[in-house]
Amino acid sequence: MPKTPNYFQNRTILITGAASGIGRATAKIFAREGANVIATDINGDGAEETATIVRSSNAGAEAIEVDVTDRAAVETAVSRGVEVFGGIDFLLNSAGAAGRRSSFLDINVELWRQTYALNVDGIFNTMQSVLPHMLEKEYGVIVNIASMAHRRGGPGHSTHYASAKGAVVTLTMGVAREFVDRGIRALSISPGPIDTAFQDISSPELKQRMTDDVPMKRMGTPQEIGEMVLFMCSNACEFMTADTVYINGGGGFR
Fold it and tell me: How far does the chain reach from its first CA to its final CA, in angstroms?
């Protein structure tokens, strides 16, 4: 929570992947605190559903259908959000996926490129589009969703995804350090297994193995990640930047 009451009132967050999972949960949490939400997703109907939920909390919301791998579409969405709310204070990059599980030798070029396009290029596109607006105000916080997988490598089922999320951690660190003297903070979150639709590509056996590896013996919830995003964007941790935070129930390092 922020140090200052009503800190998030009338501030604005742009969220990618806002139609479900961590993105939607974070939108609801920021709406609870009075922030405006720009809900973007390739699933336009899902983004509108999230925006409707936000508006029901008496917070401002704008839903925009956007493919984050399309740079022109991203820039259009950012410009629209700035036009509606007058600026963007926070950015959450939640859009991401592994595509499918695959052993390393079965990863084809198409899967590799699609994984990097969504998980890395998408974040690159949004950060480059939003940062100039933040720099004008000399204030902004960027939070990117990485993954615990970058510590483990995803052997046997998701090396492509783990590699891409490692790039997210590095990209976040570089941007944070480059703009630290301009009022910008950038952080990533590296969750362990989270109970979202993302897990639908995992077999029951893999889900059980991942859960068994967590000392708490459960997956995390999207809401638990969303509350961390809120904390990171608040003025309670202004010395925090260029780092990744692990939320994994105590597991996932081996």
Answer: 32
* 3 in a structural domain: no
Q: What is the pLDDT of residue 217?
A: 85
pLDDT tens per residue across span 176-195: 999 999 999 999 999 998 98
Could you tell me the CA-to-CA distances from 120 to 128, 227, 238 in Å, in that order?
Answer: 12, 24, 26
% of the chain with per-residue pLDDT over 90: 85
Model confidence at 243, pLDDT cuts 50, 70, 90, reads very high
Q: Does residue 251 lie within any of the structural domains?
A: no
Q: Which H/E stretch holds residue 39?
A: strand 36-41
Instruction: Report yes or no on 5 lying in a domain.
Output: no
CA distance 175 to 187: 9
Q: How many CB atoms lie within 10 A of CB 116?
A: 18
Given the residues 7, 139, 161, 246, select the one marked as catalytic.
161
pLDDT (mean) for 169-182: 98
Instruction: Give the CA angle between residues 84, 87, 90 to the nearest 5°.
Output: 115
Residue 203 sits in a domain whose CATH number is 3.40.50.720
Residue 161 is a catalytic residue? yes
The side-by-side arrangement of strands in the sheet containing 12-16 is: 61-65, 36-41, 12-16, 90-93, 140-145, 184-191, 244-247
Mean pLDDT of 204-233: 88
Residue 225 is assigned to a structural domain of this protein = yes
Asked whether the beta carbons of 164 and 69 are under 8 A apart, the reply is no
pLDDT at 198 over 60: no
